[in-house]
Amino acid sequence: NNRSQLSSLPLQILLYVNGIYYIFYFLATLAMIIYKSQVFSYPDDLLAPDLAVLFLMAILEVPRLYLGFKGNLTEAEAPLGLSLGLTVGSVVLCVYLLLWQTYVLWADVLLNALLLSAYGLESGLKVMAIAAFVS
């Protein structure tokens, strides 16, 4: 069986880098929410949803990255497709933190813009990988 390797090295590297970046993103965003809750008059009923979105995003990130790694390495479109679906959810949560959280600092804009760019690039590579696996 002389089948060529279809898994994507750029996707694998990007998934790895995104995993590292997400840890930094999570800690930085959490620190900023704590900072904002101390410095600004943060309404109590708005602190919980902002934190909930961040933690939900962190919970989504684990299967999102795992399925991305697994689908790419095993050249299986199903896990990669699921990972792509979870990425859509992560993008929505990221946009919430970029536009609709209670206080948005320039650092929030920077962190979320970087994450959205990475998600976009990763999604494009996932679609290309799925197309290669299916064909």
TrEMBL record:
It is found in: Cell projection, Cilium; Membrane. Keywords: Cell projection, Membrane, Transmembrane, Transmembrane helix. It is a multi-pass membrane protein. Its main location: other. It holds the Pfam family Transmemb_17. GO terms for cellular component: ciliary transition zone; membrane. InterPro entries: Uncharacterised_TM-17. This is TMM80 protein.
